[in-house]
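Below is our example:
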Amino acid sequence: TLTTITNDVWALQLGATLTWSKLAVPGVLPSPRTMTAAAYDEPRDALVIFSGSDNNFQSPADVWSLPLDGSTPWSQISPVGQGPGGRAGEAVAYDSARHRLLIFGGNTEGYVPQNDVWALSLDDVPAWTKLLSADPAPTPRTGSMGLYDVASDAFVMFGGYDINYQYKQDAWSYDLATPAAWRAVAPSGTPAAARY
């Protein structure tokens, strides 16, 4: 059974009792989608989303922001510069040192996994920038997880799967202070199983 793809927003209230609530968001909404890159923009107290896949497996290359204080509805962001195009299943992280989103990989339309890195500044004039990297680099993939490591000033990603649906269990770190520097991370202990 296929699940209906929606464009609703839910909040999980943290505390002694966890409580789900659906947010009533007025106005124009982003189109329904799945496998969307989403991150929290802390200075603006907003949810920011990029692309994803719709019911027709199309990936709109749009960016939206939703203030979480309920003051305004969704607003579409129109970044300057050439962006990565529509994606689904890309890893995302919020780079708090530079007030920007970081995007790694994901599928372009036609199911073509990528391994590029993009930054979307969230300043007054949002702009796309492709971050350069040299080999070695993670293999092209979708469904990987991403985070920003404050202590190392790095974009870290784990897992995902490639064009042949081979699940990955590798971790990589992209040094943001001196770009073009991916390095494989080899933690001690037994790694988590391959996953996306």
Remarks:
- The mean pLDDT is 91.
- The longest strand covers residues 112-121.
- The CA atoms of residues 99 and 123 lie 7 Å apart.
